[in-house]
Each structure stands twice: as C-alpha cells, then as structure tokens.
Amino acid sequence: MLAEHHVDQRTAAVNGAIEIAPAAIHLEVCLINIPTASGFAVAAPTQTFSQCRVSLASHSRTVSWLNRTFGKIYGLAGMPMGYAVAPKRLAASLKRNGVGAAHSLNRLALAAAAASLRDPGYVDGMRLKVVEERQKWHALLDTLGRRRSDSRGNFVFFETGQPHEMIAAQLIREGIEIARAFPPFDQWIRISIGLPAENARARDAIRKLLG
Q: Cβ(45)–Cβ(28) under 8 Å?
C-alpha cells in the first residue's frame, strides 16, 4: 500500500517508467479502511485483506500494478512486508529508484514472507476460517439490531450505543481486550477474530452487555 511519505519517490519512479508528465496521470488507489474493514476506493472496489491496485492512465495507455501486504491474512503484522505485481518496465523503474531495495528490508520479515508464499494452503484455510467466524459475529450483531460495518477483514466493527471506554472496561473484566477507539466512532468497538473458542467467549460477553 502506498504510504503518504513514499508518494513523491514512487511517483517519480512511475513517471520515468511510463514517460508521461505528472499532469497526465490518472491515479486510482484501492484501499481497505482500517477501522471498518470495508472496501472503499477512489474509483473501484477493492478486494479483501489489504490489497491495493494502482492504475496510471495516459490517453489510451494504462499501466497498473497490484500491491499486497503480509500484514493481515498471513499474520505478519509485526513484520511489515509486501510485494507488487507490475509490468516489467514499471518494476524495473521502481527498482532503479530504490523501491523495495533488499538492504532496506527487515531480514526476518523477508524470511517469513518467503515462507508464507511457499504455503498457499495455509492462506486458503485461514481465509475460510475467518469468513466462518466473521459470519457468526455478523449474525449475532444483526440479531441484536446493532449497526455494523460490512467487514471483510479479520475483525468486526459495530455500534454499541455506549462510550467506547465504558464497553472496553466491562469487557476487560471478562478477560477480553478490544482495539482502541477510532474517533469519530466513539460508540463503536472493533473486535479481532481469534480462535473459535475465543470468539464464542467474546460473543457471549457482547450478548450479555448489549442483549
């Protein structure tokens, strides 16, 4: 995903790759909204699990590449790492401009990411487990009549009708820790999806608090 502080550097690389003036660039970026896990985009919907597609068009030409991160479904949030699938010419220009230079990357993250790519079965299985558990959460929230995001990530985000700090304090007494508040959603909470037994325990606590 394009970080704001890297935009200038990467734009220069892209401009060199497709040889057009910056004013001629149409930039389309698809992101995952972090608090809600709902897909949103400048021009088109995104796929799930922190995927980003960037298109640059000049007249009839379009150059696109796909960014992926290992931070969510691969479980490597503590070791930032990602990759891009891009046309050869664009990839070569990005490389010449230092984007993705190996010496700038964490060695442990590189090893973990490489191992993840060699185990596609893990990702497929994890995706199914997350979807199954998320559907259980959504079913509960719909039964309770609570507004929620259309989450497509590994957590749920919903309205409680009470201040975040109040709900968080009550849940911590049940041994359940939730994510921080995301202003201006001060009466919404985000709960990460864990193991099935952990999810069932958290749902029981929410049912008791909000049912």
A: no
Q: What is the pLDDT of residues 178-198, one digit of tens each?
A: 999 999 999 999 999 999 999
CB atoms near residue 76 (< 10 Å): 19
> Spelled out in words, what is the top-level CATH class assigned to the domain 120-210?
alpha beta
| Per-residue pLDDT tens digits for 46-101 | 333 344 444 444 444 555 677 778 887 888 888 888 888 888 888 888 888 888 78
Which among 136, 147, 144, 125 is positioned nearest to 193, based on CA atoms?
A: 136
Domain borders along the chain are 4-117, 120-210
